[in-house]
Amino acid sequence: MDFSDLKGMFAEVKTRMDGAIDRVRRDMAGVRTGRATVSLLDGVQVDAYGSKMPVNQVATLSVPEPALIVAQPFDPSLMAAIEKAIRASDLGLNPMNDGKVVRIPIPALTDERRKELSRHVHKQAEDGRNAVRQVRRDANDRLKKLLKEHKISEDDERKGLDHVQKMTDEHVKLVDELQRKKDQELLER
User: I need a surface site. Which of 32, 68, 112, 169 has the fewest CB within 10 A?
Assistant: First the structure.
């Protein structure tokens, strides 16, 4: 893809880096802390009507208290399927249904599990930083190619490389901040 328009290229770089940040944010939302959040169940797929559907499309999810998620199925016949899907997920949750709703208690985390989840969060953050750096690499290669083809001046290339580096630093800082916040959540009692 040839961009002699540097602004367009920078916009694309920013969009791709923002995408990497969003991915990290979504991944980290799925990491269980000691507190109940409906985003915890985002990855859970329920067998419903002959296909797999996200649990939030077959039930209303709510958090009536800090250590409990309640799933109210739109169709009561899906109660067992919702329970089974949550049990089968790797979240370590044990749902129970009372015939009307599925109650999902969030157990307290052990110290060992907290450390394990913290390592997982660090890996997600590193993957995010690598994704941002890959976008930087692509942009820098493109700038060098434009210079080689005499479509931009050396000054424009240098300014472009500086601008891409600045965007990279900002996005890496965002990933670091997400990691720090998630670690704090994990270590809260």
Answer: 112
| Mean pLDDT confidence for 95-121 | 85
Same fold for the pair 6-29+110-187 and 38-105:
no
Q: What is the pTM of this model?
A: 0.68
- pLDDT at residue 5, rounded to an integer: 79
Length of the chain in terms of residues written = 189
Task: Spell out the residues 6+ positions from residue 44 whose beta carbon is closer than 8 angstroms to its own.
Answer: 54, 55, 85, 86, 89, 91
Which CATH superfamily includes the segment(s) 6-29+110-187?
Ribosome-recycling factor (1.10.132.20)
- The set of long-range contacts for 132-138, using a CB threshold of 8 Å and a minimum separation of 24, is 132/17, 132/20, 132/21, 132/168, 132/171, 132/172, 132/175, 133/168, 133/172, 135/13, 135/16, 135/17, 135/20, 135/168, 136/13, 136/164, 136/165, 136/167, 136/168, 138/13
Give the residue-averaged pLDDT of 105-110. Answer: 81
